[in-house]
């Protein structure tokens, strides 16, 4: 490993520079460890090794200045930008004003995790919905592609979009944590590159720690950038056990609740949805199947929360609950006749039928983004 450090090698899994001096810093490799025989042996840091073999994640800090430096550098290149967004958390994972960083380079917007939506959802309508929200966030994508990196669905369409807009350019892959960036790149490698290694993939934030340049057969490169850590996503606040419950890994079954005013829904001990005022109507919840939803009357809801959070109301359990910020209230008005979603970043959304309007209070950990938007479905 001494020779590797002397030549400033990088981890083949996450891209961070390797070092053997400080086990608490990124890129640590125990002295004497290596990637096998031969000059082309691939070396991974201890963190990537434990993610791959034990499904364990070690949190490594990454300051915002490095993210901004990497993104700002894209504008000085001639490249195609592949921006990967999580369809299940579009509002929380999209990079607002991305064109300020990438300049005139074309952006292909790949919207991942489409497999989580109910069957029969109109894809053309979903794409139009995405374009509208992208425009509101300062994005003008050259193309929008719905896909599932996990199931390899929509992948041919993505390859076609990249070929249409690449014209020999390098491909920069950008996105927030937990949107499936590294998983998608590993899929692209098999089509675009003769590289036989794979990037480290895990459900934990911040897996890719520096840019990873993957050589392409035509002499260009596909460049994976670190996942941007957005503090307003619930997934950045919870511990590993809760993260596994919050992140859906299969089709999300919509849960429909017919509510009268002054009824409430608890989403484990993570969030609360109060129907404060309005006529009897339906609310459809799109959250991970691992999240338990409890319905009760609004009267006495505060006492119920205090008594049962971390136990009956879970996840998270009592141990992980202590690290979450206190709940903050968001008061929202659903206009009559407007079909709207209440999106809780990192958790999911609640669709409001909106036939007669409603007054809603949403409680989520302080700092989590809660937005009212036109209904996706």
UniProtKB/TrEMBL annotation:
Residues 68-231 form the CP-type G domain. SUPFAM superfamilies: P-loop containing nucleoside triphosphate hydrolases. Pfam families: MMR_HSR1 (PF01926), YqeH-like_C (PF21516). InterPro entries: G_CP_dom, GTP-bd, GTP-bd_ribosome_bgen_YqeH, Mito_lipid_metab_GTPase, NOA1/YqeH-like_C, P-loop_NTPase. Transmembrane segments: none annotated. This is Ribosome biogenesis GTPase YqeH. The gene is yqeH.
